[in-house]
């Protein structure tokens, strides 16, 4: 049993409210498998240099979506086991 998982992080622009990918910032981080959702989002935002940015977070199974307020951008955090 592994005790770390990989979190794929993508940050991109939007067009019409949907991810556009005309530019994208990607990174991956390793996290402990027992990490809480809040700590996971904080680490992912820090990895994309979004710490301190407020927005709406939505959870969809193994994918977390973060939409910063007053910005035409979106971030996706996907767990890879």
Question: In words, what does this structure look like?
Answer:
Helix content is 14%, strand content 58%. It is mainly beta. The chain has one domain (4-80). It has a 5-stranded antiparallel beta sheet, covered by helices on one side. It is globular. It starts with a strand and ends with a strand. The mean pLDDT is 95.
Question: Quick gist of this model?
Answer:
The protein has 81 residues and is mainly beta.
Question: What's the arrangement of secondary structure elements?
Answer:
Layout: E1 4-15, E2 18-32, H1 37-47, E3 55-60, E4 63-68, E5 73-80
Antiparallel strand pairs: 1-2, 1-5, 3-4, 4-5
Features:
81 residues; mainly beta; 5-stranded antiparallel sheet; globular
As for the number of domains, it is: 1
- Beta percentage is over 45%
Q: How many H/I helical runs?
A: 1
Q: From the helix content, strand content and strand pairing, which structural class follows?
A: mainly beta
Which strand order do you get reading across the main beta sheet?
2-1-5-4-3
The run of helices and strands is EEHEEE
Overall shape: globular
Query: How is the main sheet built?
Result: 5 strands, antiparallel
Rg = 12 Å
Distance between the termini: 11 Å
Task: Count the beta strands.
Answer: 5
The proportion of residues forming helix, as a percent range, comes to 10-25%
Instruction: Give the low-pLDDT segments.
Output: none
Tell me, rounded to a whole number, the average pLDDT: 95
């Amino acid at each position: 049993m592994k005790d770390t998982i990989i979190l794929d992080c993508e940050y991109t622009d939007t067009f019409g409210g949907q991810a556009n990918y005309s530019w994208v910032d990607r990174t991956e981080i390793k996290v402990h498998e027992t990490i809480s959702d809040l700590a996971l989002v904080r680490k992912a935002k820090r990895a994309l240099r979004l710490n301190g940015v407020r927005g709406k977070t939505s959870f969809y199974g193994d994918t977390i979506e973060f939409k910063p307020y007053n910005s035409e951008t979106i971030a996706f955090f996907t767990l890879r086991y």
